[in-house]
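Morning F.,

Quick status update on the modeling queue. The single chain you submitted on Monday has been processed. Sequence for confirmation:
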Amino acid sequence: MPSERTEVQVRPGVEADLKALTDLYNHYVRETPITFDTAAFTPEERRPWLLSHPEDGPHRLMVATGADSQEILGYATSSPFRARPAYTTSVEVTVYVAPDAGGRGIGTLLYGALFEALAGEDLHRAYAGIAQPNEASTRLHERFGFRHVGTYREVGRKFGRYWDVAWYEREL
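Structure tokens below.
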């Protein structure tokens, strides 16, 4: 599959990506427990989220596209971990890959680019919450040096049942 990897480009997300990013996220809202959002968004509703991830600073949005098609294949973000000032050197990270683009190493490319972009920032830790079960996400995070620090049991209710969220951390 190395040839498939060369067909993917990773770059910062821009406003022109908003509709495609919203469509991708809405798939996970409607079809999976991976996000605990329960209602789909319009692009306009997602605009503040996109604008909160500039091309520099600790809160980034990296987008993977097909090299020729420019189709959005996935994205990764770093966002504020918590709102209080003492948390500013911590970020929460996440990655979403288009449902038809899994197994191609796109998540790995996205996290590689994200962590490279964050390397010069004043950050100490990255955290990731993974709704359980999600073996692919767990493997991806462990590949990037995340370690399991705890699990919130039955913390979210979606699709008529409760879901656990395993929390992982990594030094930056």
